[in-house]
Batch of 2 targets.
Target 1
Amino acid sequence: MTKKLDTKGVSRRSILKGGAAVTGAALGSGAITGFPTIWAQNIKDVTLRQFGTGVSNLNEVAQKVKEDLGFTLEMTALDSDAVTQRAATQPDSFDIADIEYWICKKVWPTGNLQAMDTSKIKNYDKIVGIFKSGKLTPESVIAQGTAPHTVGFVDGPDGKSFAGEETGWMTLIPTIYNADTLGIRPDLIGRPIESWTELLNPEFKGKASILDISSIGIMDAAMVCEAMGEIQYGDKGNMTREEIDKTMAIFTEAKKNGQFRAFWKTFDESVNLMASGEVVIQSMWSPAITAVKSRGIPCVYQPLKEGYRSWGGGIGLSKSLSGLELEAAYEYINWYLDGWVGGFLMRQGYYSAVPETSKNHMDENEWGYWFEGKEATGDITSPFGDVLAKAGETRDGGSFYDRMGAVACWNAVMDENQYMVRKWNEFIAA
Amino acid sequence: MTDQTHLFIHKDTGAAPAKSRTPFSLSRLPDAVTGWLLSLPLALVLFFFLVLPIVMIVVVSFWGATEFSIYPAFQFDNYEFLLTSPVTYQVFFNTIKYALITWAFTLVIGFTVAYFLAFHVRTLTWQIVLFLLCTIPFWTSNIIRMISWIPFLGRNGIANSTLISMGVIDEPLDWLLFSDFSVILAFVHLYTLFMVVPIFNTMMRIDKSLIEAAYDNGASGLQTLTNVIIPLTKPGIMIGSIFVVTLVMGDFITVRFMSGSQSANVGRLISNDIALLQYPSAAATAVILLVTVLLVISILLRFVDIRKEL
């Protein structure tokens, strides 16, 4: 008897569940609208799985999503290579891919992501020009490499190849980007550093480092070789075999002469190398500098006269996302661009794709310091509470327009990528 | 173990077992069938979890790859590139160099530790206590044990600051960290126990009266060691060597961390390929590595018949 009751209970519950799912699907497809209560109840059951690199996949964001939107966001932080692998080979293991634009070039052709309808993006018009036309200001020159706008659009919802201009269908919704340069230990160097050439300066023999992620490392190497006047590249982001050979030859020679102390692959490694004084000059990421500084060790994200090597990241949606989950994902994207996350990221030294909404979530001092390049009027703290700068200090590299306007190239995937990777392996093994 | 072996031999060659009256039992089946049935579970497990994956790897090693996908094909490109590239030889040379040096150090240290435990420590209690002491470092993970060397050996690390304060050196020694030295040091630290355990195990089974006999016949300590103990410990040494050599040849994370990514072994080559989605190329490298390791092991096995010695 008891058994029978149980079965009944279960089946009734499953019918209810099924009903909810049908309602959800109907809502998602846009067939029924105007049922906010049902929507609010259903969305609580939604779980979206997001993965990406450690820079933006932070638990604080997931918590805030739960508070503001009600659904659950599961975050997985991986390194750049693992991100590429997962996006390309395990399409069903995620709903939202937080990836970098240069990775998009590798991942989009696999068909694991779906294009996004920009008409559903509330703040689309406020997204900075870099991601739409490639130009920061109308006069800007578009930098070399895989500039985000070149892989940002496809022709339609099922488009396979990238479109040259805005089409209303985006591959990734831009979220975060920055201009990278060399990090230095001013206390151990004791003189001004102005050019990328300093990375191979014998003065820093055994105290220099670059990162061992080939697609990014080669760009840094190219910045150095070009600054040395050794090589004139057609496009640093799309080198010929000859250019790759020359670049790697210069770096291999430096390696054999003992220029490098170590190569790093993860964020933590770069922080430890710098903080322990093993290296005094290395390619580095902005929050890594922040991490070194928050240990009380002087570290500068040195602007260089040849300009910056830049990167951008965005959110992509899994092909298999549909119905209520898809609606929730759009909700999430709109929330993302609404400013809270932007403020959170900008306080770490990155830029938000929609700076003007982030402004609402930062105080005047923070906005002045991080975006406008003004002197801090009080202590500047990271989102985690560490003091990064005191009153009177200004940000390395100045304002948003100074920094992003001086981008020399974007992280890229070259046509000769496979050849480049082989050459890079030779360099590591040399 | 010996008894059991005899039993099997006897059963295989001996007369058919007596017929029992029970309607069905395994013993009514022909011996050959029983044997096959008994080995079936293990055979299946090995087939699905060892043979099949290896076959897959071999198959994929002939496939082609683009930037973002792999496609079935039968081409020799991966091998051609691998075998014609000077990097491959350099990296294999490096791998074997690490394996040999690590092997030599772990053997000497492992043998000494095992010898001490087996012959110098008198009571079983102390033997167990000291043996457990050896395993304490293994309570933490491989990576943690390895990474703990980095602050120790670093430019401003404990080793350098101690040496400087003792007046032995004026400048910090750079080669302590991010060098072949640190790689091998970490390997030896990580893998010596794999040498200690099998050697200790075989030493414990050496009949003590053999050593007494050698002593009674006037053999010196060294003679006892070389003529009695080492030959009798050979199986343990071989098993330990196989452990160490295969572990070192397959390890890539130690090389990456301890050399500061500045040197490469075959494992790193494979992990790089995988990271860049070049699965076929990674598979080809893996096949070559597998062949190399199997060759090394077959050479080792020529020196001693482990099955007989066990």
Target 2
Amino acid sequence: MGRVWSILFLCVPILGVWIFVAAMNDWWPMSGGAYAFGPGQWFPALDVSEHVIDHLFYLILSLTGIVFIGTGLALFWFLWRYDAATNKDPVVFSHGSHALEVIWSIVPAVALLFIAIYQMDAWANARMRRPTTADGAAKPPLCRVSGRQFEWRIQYPGEDGRFDTPDDLHVLNDLHVPVDEEVVIEIESMDVLHSFFLPNMRVKQDVVPGMRQYVWFHPVKEGVSDIVCAELCGWGHYKMRGQITVDSAAEYDRWYSAAYAEQETSEFVPSEGEE
Amino acid sequence: MSTTTIDSHTQAANSEMSIGHFLSTYVFSRDHKVIGIQFLFSTLIWFVVGGLLALGIRWQLAWPWSNMPVIGNMLFSAEGGQISPEFYTVLVTMHATVMIFLVIIPILAGAFGNFLIPLMIGADDMAFPTLNMLSYWFMWPAFICFGAAFFCDGHGAAAGWTSYPPLSAMTTAAPGSGDAQTFWLLGVTFVGVSSMLGSVNYMTTIIQMRAPGMTMFRLPLTIWGMFITALLQAFALPVLTAAGFMLLADRLFGTGFFLPEALSVNNSPMASGGGQPLLWQHLFWFYSHPAVYIMILPAMGMVSDILACFARKPIFGYKPMVYSICGIAGLGFIVWGHHMFVSGMNPGLGMTFMVATMMIALPSAVKTFNWLGTVYGGQVQFTTPMLFALSFVSMFVIGGLSGIFMAATPVDIVIHDTYFIVAHFHYVLFCGTAMAVFGSIYFWFPKMFGRMMNETWGKIHFTLTFIFMNGTFFTMHILGAGGFPRRLADPYHYPTFSHMLTMNQFMTVCAIGMVAVQVIFAINFFYSLFWGPKAGRNPWHANGLEWQAPSPPGHGNFDFQPIVYRGPYEYGSPETDEDYYPQTMPPKNERPEPA
């Protein structure tokens, strides 16, 4: 029976690797392949610049994959080889090995420190180094997104570049950004915690009431994608869906003027507590 | 079965003499073994509840807004047999709460900690038996509070098991934010009181009541795991309790610890303000991250004991194993911030927490390699407990490695709050800890009840659980890497995730299978309880002190004074002809008169 059990445990690394490879190469029989699983496109498509985060993901996947396969094979081999039913060798009476302990402490430590240091720059770019304008000042936000149970209120500052003035454009759940430009968005919450999640832009930031925060990304391809709320915000959490559209510069201007004109005619201005 | 009776001065078989009132023996017992078994039965019942709640979640994700067969009309007649979005948030909240606070933590510390600690260190009971009894009975207010939450408006708390304010601080935010949330907070507090009483007892017992010769470095790793867990609870729990009271005050008395100014929820403006929602997250995770280790360290210890026993070999690197338990616990206190990388916390702080979190993978890696080293060169016996212990090692590798992804801050931006996280902690807590618990039940069942469980059915239970469990949880990694978020009642509402429906259906089928095969375990457990073959003192030929006591041990545990001569893992020692060498057996060249 020992052989059967060894093979059962061998299935873990084999099937585990197969599932990951299948998903990455769109072999997974049960995926539609439309979004996340396009050929070589495991992450949601319509990506931002340089795939930094995807690259890090794959790097960690390779490193952990080696350990996963290595330990899985070792476990399989030990079970196969040292099955009491077939193994006639006496037990190796050993309490451990100092040299081995040192080796398998230092090697993972180096690998982990490498990962930790290697990615710091990506983190800083994603969170700490806000894009700047030509003169070095922090780039002003393109718009403000406010989370509210269960919708995204989007406010563009208008001509004067300042929020909460009469020329602001207000839209609901429909964010438009220009392509090939670093976009900064101010986010805030009007009630509970939400999380502003743009899967295709690798952007996620909890929206905390009482805090003003900025997120930024650099869209390089035109297209439409989802704004998802990723923090439980109440019973309607699942339907707190917005849409982000990356437009060409001309298309963005056209959309903006049309939306503004529509707002002027409908005179829709959301007020506090408005439903 | 050879038993080494050194001291013939038996502590009078007082099991016969002390049978007093039924209540004082079986209900309000102060005997650590009875308390341990009480914990075991209570937590197993809640395990069933938690598992069924999980099936509700899986049903919704596989066949959203569809009539549940058979039970749908009974439970949700108002919604036409469907799960409503309100109830879905209750399901995710209560599933997690029940599993963490009423199953995993109390089954490890409460059930196994209570049963094993005095037996394994050679004591006749805990240091404070009455306190010990109270630690079990303080679970009952918690059971009642969590049970009551299901019958309040909204049918349960609905703010997630993390209960982040402001959602959890408002009584009007949603159905389930009212009394159910208050009961939830009270329930967590009572669990905390119970754990605190237990942890004081465990620490004192392990430090003070070890048998002669039982030095700290002769303790089984199970005891080391329990000891460090007790330390973690003692230092981290007060923070959660305090935070819980602050949140209760926000809810009931209008304070504003966690509520900023000018908040309006569900169209009702909040009077209070001046607080900060992130404060709750810091306080909550300051307990709940160490709690992750509270949920795994005892399991690691128990797995080490089982592995050494059935590899018939000393544990590889005993001291490094002990140091890595301590290392995990120490680092466990400074990594809570990794739950908050995208919470709005200062991103500079994120870097610190990231490095600390990376480093905590190190002692975990050392443990894994030592487990492999233990199996190497052994005489592996594939008993049911051994299979569960091996699956713990195999699964913990996956759970540990996936942790590195979320420790990496930039990668965490994408996978935070997705099913990648769900995959990770289910690999650690279900595929890891729960497998260790199953293995431990099969392993110590003869000691607890004096009878053996059925091996064949145990192996069938193991194999099916193992297959279905991997089918359920491994796939979650793929979903999560594609961005599939947690806690959405209908993720297919978003085109980005709509193609993941079939994968979810596959997982749900596996999950139903996984829950169904637990019936085999239940039948085996109860059948063996009454009709299993009688077990001798030491059916597995193990070394630990507990195996030298009668099965089941009477009141006062040992019928002789155990004296310890060596560590618990001297299997296959050349000093003896047997392949095991009980801790109480005097060395061959040394005859009587042990000091």
